Amino acid sequence: MDPVLVREDAGVAEVTLNRPEARNALNLPMCTALRETFADLDADDTVRVVVLKGAGTVFCAGADLKERKGKDETWVRRRRLASFAAYETIERCGKPVFAVVDGPVVGSGGEIAMSCDFVLASSSATFRFPEPHWGTVGATQRLQRVVGKRRAKELLFTGRVVDAEEASRLGLVTRLAPGGELGKLVTETVEAILAAPPLAMSLTKQAVDLGEEAALSTGIRIELAAIERNLADGGWRRGVAEFADRIGE
Hints:
The strands form two sheets. The chain has a six-stranded mixed sheet, sandwiched between helices. A three-stranded mixed sheet has the order 5-7-8. The chain is globular, with a radius of gyration of 19 Å. The longest helix is centred in the first third of the chain and has 20 residues, at 73-92. The chain has helices spanning 28-43, 73-92, 108-115, 142-147, 149-158, 164-170, 182-194, 198-211, 216-233, 236-248; strands at 4-9, 12-17, 49-54, 97-101, 104-106, 118-121, 126-128, 162-163, 175-176. By secondary structure, the protein is an alpha/beta fold. This is Enoyl-CoA hydratase/isomerase family protein.
């Protein structure tokens, strides 16, 4: 069974973590598959948006600790580097990428979700970061950038479960769907992204990401460079015309 499934249709790539028998726990083959999948999607000009979800009732139960039995420190170190490479490839994908969470997210599952541009979730979503309690170290960097340093420490130190409402307040979840309406929210979000010109969307993501840790003055220069590239393409005229037509309807 492939650890990651990909289905493409009309500009939308649906990527599924596909180890439901192991609650989609992240193992080495899944790390490799995620890295290769997102590298391919990034290079595919027909893909406009990527939706990442988990098969079954769990998004991802964290790292598959069973695969570490009998392994030495060198293997574990390489395995951790493979997971970092997977997260980074998701994060660096030039297309809009969002996660859909309809169940538990644990440890490495949180790293995968936080590597996406944003997260849509149902009320069934929960988050937990138990790495220290599992005798390991993880989620120390992305988590604090999402929820803040003090909250990240509390979540890591206690390993407690965060329900969907709190996850939304903390910023782990960007939008929380009303009961039974997660599918509708996903469809609406995909349609909204597809409605924008591809280059403008790509440049917007790039400018936000590059400007994240830059001074405002540097960020403005990044945005101006993106504007110049967009103007040089000429597609902006079509976008303005289509917007004007919609307003006039």
